[in-house]
């Protein structure tokens, strides 16, 4: 009687042959030859370019339409104006997040939380950083023992009143210099009010600070360029989406619709506040999108500039991932209400 030998433990069986016909590629999808195949970004780009070449006559006719000419003009103008500030802001925020130790902030802030809140809020005026950088920095501050109220004030002020953002606002609104002051005042008030609100009503169990920074265990150079790549990809993508939305509002949406919303003081503020939340623009670039929305009042556009850096879709996701979903569900509505109310009042006084 023939005896069939079973493969030894750890040895490949018939279905686990490690030869060429049984290789598994990086994507996990195996073709007839055993090699993995998947659609990646370069392949999608090549396919897109091939389609553009195949239908170039139709594409050329579509781009020659007056509506598309207007759309492309606004889109390119917003991108060209915003990109230098975006790149500079990303480089500076990555340098601060990597090379400035969180213990520096703990030593620099007053021990009393009520005094630490305005000091931390004012620190955002001298420490450039976008929203993508401020959330992990705030998490590091809480982890190092900084009062949560002060860390949250810094989280809101740093992306809103730093020099890069204020300079970009001045460039975007050359004929309205008070817009820079209004943005600074309103954003700082929102940051401090939120910090004091947390100090009075916040609970420790709502806040779940991260146990470890994502850059820990890496060299400073690797952490720096990793932060730069992350922020450029995220912020750049949101900038493109924002520029497309601004161009669409200018070129496609009927003027009567925009005029109806823009002519109503309360509705215009609420519409641009909602737009700021949905677009999720980087704070280094949002001023140029706001400047292109000329149908709306300066107060409504100020609301757009104040709301965006304190609460939008990407910020909500980052805050939930860093501090916990329970925190984000309480923090986001509070900051949104404060940002809309303070920006509307500030605009009424200064603009």
Task: Walk me through what this model shows.
It is a multi-pass membrane protein. This is Permease. Its main location: membrane. Residues 18-34 have a biased composition (Low complexity). There is one protein chain. This protein is an all-alpha fold and 351 residues long. It has one domain. Helix content is 71%, strand content 0%. The chain contains 16 helices and no strands. The protein has helices spanning 41-54, 56-63, 66-99, 102-108, 113-123, 131-143, 148-161, 163-172, 178-201, 220-251, 255-263, 265-279, 286-292, 298-310, 313-323, 325-350. The chain is globular and about 65 Å long. The N and C termini lie far apart (98 Å). Mean pLDDT is 78; it is low at 7-36.
In short:
This protein is 71% helix and 0% strand.
Structural class: mainly alpha
**Tally of DSSP β-strands:** 0
Radius of gyration: 25 Å
Tally of contiguous helical segments: 16
* Estimated helix fraction: over 70%
Beta-strand content bin: under 5%
Number of domains: 1
What is the average per-residue confidence, as pLDDT, rounded to a whole number? 78
Q: Looking at the structure, what is the overall shape? A: globular
Largest sheet: none
Q: How far from one another are the termini?
A: 98 Å
What are the segments in which pLDDT stays under 50 over at least 5 consecutive residues? 7-36
Strand and helix order: HHHHHHHHHHHHHHHH
